[in-house]
């Protein structure tokens, strides 16, 4: 039996099993050693292959796609440093719990550690940032080895998806010649009709006695809070709204919680919590008896201060599967249960739990005051830019948010709306790399996506625009250009390192982005008023293609404007709380 036959059947069986296990998209980074995988994916009629020339961009593109589609996406690259360029996105996928199946081609064993080109040590190269690593056997057509190939493919998809989702890596040693023969008969044929390693799982619920034990700790607490951090399960909207109504309890909702959009009840959603908690004086007036948190840790730093300043309150974190995400290191009770099920069970079993109406009323009044404040004024500020995005947000739209200042401005200025949609971001490792590529990946299946990001984040991933051009993917980008790292202007080093601040932290780019946008076939427009921004966004959504709306601001003026608003809100919040 020839090498080519072994190669063809082995790789075809592996690829076919990935498809049968639920993989519908593969992102391919071109290269020679990965030829068998790339050609076989391209030949399979039931999977869509996307070619992205830049490995770092490709991995973030797959990440954004997997996040939006809520299912694993496969990645293929050649051997050598190509595999290393996947690393930042794999780290992000691990921490943000996004399923990826990473297939790295490699030199065969005899060409390793002997000075062969493009041969680096790829064994467990992603360390603990993947849920599972496996070194594939060399291709072979025997029945046992074809079953092995299918079993590894099936296991890879289920492992990436099961429990807390995340990336897995399979490393493929491949000998030359590398071109399969697709004229061979029955290369996709399987010995089984179904997925090779099917698995069955159910929703995790608490035993009734465990739930009663938890709820019994809350029966005397009249000043409680529900908190929802980043998560993507839209089923959670209705369930937490019902629990909030049952207990008459405020819900502090992070922008990535998916609670600020949708048609669920929002009467007790407190989206202005970050602004409320910025004031230490206000925080001192708000002493919770307990907090139950769902999802990851919220974006808000003032919320973290709030937790740290209340060490004696009861603190619970609800996670669907085992994990520890509580960076304040506060004494915390972990509840491992499906969040929707926990809310439903709590509604049914907690008839004696109800908050002090005055406590809840104060939170609602402060939140309403803040929402009214953000609709005032007609200045083109970074905050009001978010307010305009909020106003023109359409049903089934998706807002992808860059890190640093944009996500914080969305936290502050994106108020609740009754239109359906998602708000996503890369908040696993909170980096600024790969943001453009992730947003393009989220838009790849036709979702209308608006990307809000700063100039440094845009600069870090300009290559991500290429795949949008290549596949004609619609993406509207709102680019906040304050010529540098705006978030650093809010930090102590802005004053304490004044002699070196601009070079080390401000990092002005002094670039005209219109040139690169034109190169990638996009339309660029500088926005000079809120009305223009509103009109231009609506036109961008109608026209499609790559649309970049650039809003130029001044970092120093932005800091002063924000602090002025916070001081004003602090005064009104203290009045509501009864302290003059």
UniProtKB/TrEMBL annotation:
EC number: 2.2.1.9
Domain Thiamine pyrophosphate enzyme N-terminal TPP-binding: 13-125
GO MF term list: 2-succinyl-5-enolpyruvyl-6-hydroxy-3-cyclohexene-1-carboxylic-acid synthase activity; magnesium ion binding; manganese ion binding; thiamine pyrophosphate binding
Enzyme category, top tier: transferase
Domain Thiamine pyrophosphate enzyme TPP-binding: 435-551
Keywords carried by this UniProt record: Magnesium, Manganese, Menaquinone biosynthesis, Metal-binding, Thiamine pyrophosphate, Transferase
Pfam families, alphabetized: TPP_enzyme_C, TPP_enzyme_M_2, TPP_enzyme_N
UniProt record, GO biological process: menaquinone biosynthetic process
Cofactor(s) recorded in Swiss-Prot or TrEMBL: thiamine diphosphate; Mg(2+); Mn(2+)
Domain of life: Bacteria
Cofactor remark: Binds 1 thiamine pyrophosphate per subunit.
Listed name of the protein: 2-succinyl-5-enolpyruvyl-6-hydroxy-3-cyclohexene-1-carboxylate synthase
Any coiled-coil regions, as ranges: none
Assembly behavior: Homodimer.
Organism: Salinibacillus kushneri
Annotated family: Belongs to the TPP enzyme family. MenD subfamily.
Residue ranges of every copy of the Menaquinone biosynthesis protein MenD middle domain listed in the record: 222-401
Pathway involvement of the protein, from the record: Quinol/quinone metabolism; menaquinone biosynthesis; Quinol/quinone metabolism; 1,4-dihydroxy-2-naphthoate biosynthesis; 1,4-dihydroxy-2-naphthoate from chorismate: step 2/7
């Amino acid at each position: 039996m020839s090498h080519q036959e072994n190669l063809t059947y082995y790789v075809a069986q592996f690829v076919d099993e990935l498809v049968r296990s639920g993989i519908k998209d593969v992102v391919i980074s071109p290269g020679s050693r990965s030829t068998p995988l790339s050609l076989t994916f391209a030949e399979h009629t039931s999977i869509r292959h996307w070619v992205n020339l830049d490995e770092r961009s490709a991995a973030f593109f797959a990440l954004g796609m997997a996040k939006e589609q809520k299912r694993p996406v496969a990645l293929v690259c050649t051997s050598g440093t190509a595999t290393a360029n996947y690393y930042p996105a794999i780290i992000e996928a691990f921490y943000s719990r996004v399923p990826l199946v990473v297939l790295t081609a490699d030199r065969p064993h005899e060409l390793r550690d002997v000075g062969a080109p493009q041969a680096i040590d790829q064994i467990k190269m992603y360390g603990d940032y993947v849920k599972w690593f496996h070194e594939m056997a060399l291709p072979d057509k025997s029945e046992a080895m074809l079953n092995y190939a299918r079993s590894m493919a099936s296991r890879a998809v289920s492992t990436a998806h099961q429990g807390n989702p995340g990336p897995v890596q399979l490393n493929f040693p491949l000998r030359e010649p590398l071109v399969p023969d697709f004229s061979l008969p029955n290369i996709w044929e399987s010995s089984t009709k179904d997925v090779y390693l099917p698995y069955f799982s159910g929703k995790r619920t608490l035993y009734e006695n465990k739930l009663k034990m938890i709820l019994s700790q809350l029966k005397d607490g009249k000043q409680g809070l529900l908190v929802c951090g980043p998560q993507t399960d839209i089923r959670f909207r209705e369930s937490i709204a019902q629990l909030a109504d049952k207990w008459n309890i405020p819900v502090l909702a992070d922008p990535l919680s998916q609670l600020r959009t949708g048609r669920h009840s929002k009467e007790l959603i407190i989206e202005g919590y970050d602004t409320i908690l910025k004031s230490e004086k206000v925080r001192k007036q708000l002493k919770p008896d307990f907090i139950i948190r769902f999802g990851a840790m919220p974006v808000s730093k003032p919320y973290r201060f709030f937790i740290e300043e209340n060490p004696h309150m009861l603190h619970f974190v609800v996670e669907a599967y085992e994990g520890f995400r509580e960076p304040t290191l506060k004494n915390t009770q972990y509840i491992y249960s499906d969040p929707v099920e926990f809310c439903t069970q709590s509604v049914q079993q907690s008839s004696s739990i109800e908050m002090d109406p005055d406590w809840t009323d104060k939170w609602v009044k402060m939140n309403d005051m803040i929402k009214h404040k953000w609709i005032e004024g007609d200045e083109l500020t970074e905050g009001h830019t978010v307010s305009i995005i909020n106003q023109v947000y359409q049903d089934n739209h998706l807002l992808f948010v860059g890190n640093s200042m944009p996500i914080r401005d969305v936290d502050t200025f994106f108020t609740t709306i009754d239109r359906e949609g998602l708000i996503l971001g890369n908040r696993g490792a909170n980096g600024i790399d790969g943001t453009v590529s992730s947003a393009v990946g989220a838009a790849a299946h036709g979702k209308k996506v608006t990307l809000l990001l700063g100039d440094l984040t845009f600069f870090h991933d300009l290559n991500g625009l290429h795949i949008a051009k290549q596949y004609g993917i619609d993406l509207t980008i709102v680019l906040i250009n304050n010529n540098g790292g705006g978030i650093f202007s809010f930090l102590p080093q802005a004053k304490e390192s004044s002699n070196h601040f601009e070079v080390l932290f401000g990092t002005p780019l002094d670039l005209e982005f219109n040139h690169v946008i034109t190169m990638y076939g996009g339309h660029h427009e500088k926005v000079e008023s809120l009305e223009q921004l509103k009109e231009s966004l609506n036109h961008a959504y109608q026209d499609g293609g790559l649309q970049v709306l650039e809003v130029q601001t001044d970092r120093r003026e932005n800091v002063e404007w924000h602090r002025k608003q916070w001081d004003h809100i602090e005064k009104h919040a203290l009045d509501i709380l009864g302290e003059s």
